[in-house]
Write a structure and sequence with these properties.
Helix content is 22%, strand content 35%. By secondary structure, it is an alpha/beta fold.
Length: 232
Amino acid sequence: MLNNWEFNIDNNNEELKLIALKHSGRVNQIGVNSFGKVGFHLIDEKNKLIKGGQFVVIDSPIHLVPEPFLGAQPTGIELNVKIEITPGVFLCYEGKNRQHLFQGVFQKANQIAQQKSNIAFVWNHEDLIYIICFKEKKFVFGNIYNVQDMAECIYFSLSAIQDCGVYNVGFEFYIDGDSNWVHDFSEQLLPMGLKPTPVHHAELYNGYYNSPQNHIDSYLFQLLSCELPEEY
């Protein structure tokens, strides 16, 4: 069971800019003041959700669509918002008036790729993984998978890395998730000669690293400065 978490400082009655993610019967909320500093952070049950914040989806299926193909998806796919996450490529999903956590994770992967060139980035939370790959600093793959166990995390990750050609160009492997998952995933890859690097996040506030969802918090904070999606 996930422990509750609360951080709060006196903001002199200042109205905070809020962002919230609801998942697995919990809500993770962050409030930022006019100086861009975290003034409030709560992880608790849904019924304590504070109104007025920007909502985020985490598991809505995504489609990464080149601009010329916008509107040309097969029938039966539900999309109602889009946002350009890299020049000429749009993140599309069903989630009207909501941001997608994938956008924040993508930005982190992109920042690393611009320094390292060839990377694979795998993010995990419970039964979800995000996989993002860059080759020669250019985005070549991104998707979300539902997984049942570590074997599926390994399978989907390595399949994506090989299929998009990153495996053959001396790539660097980055992973993010709770500490137990990061440890277990890394142990599984060692016999294959792969040594993933856990992603480091800047400290959002004093004591932040003790948050039980710090593999989510940083991306929520980042989304507060991202563009909002527009109607698809």
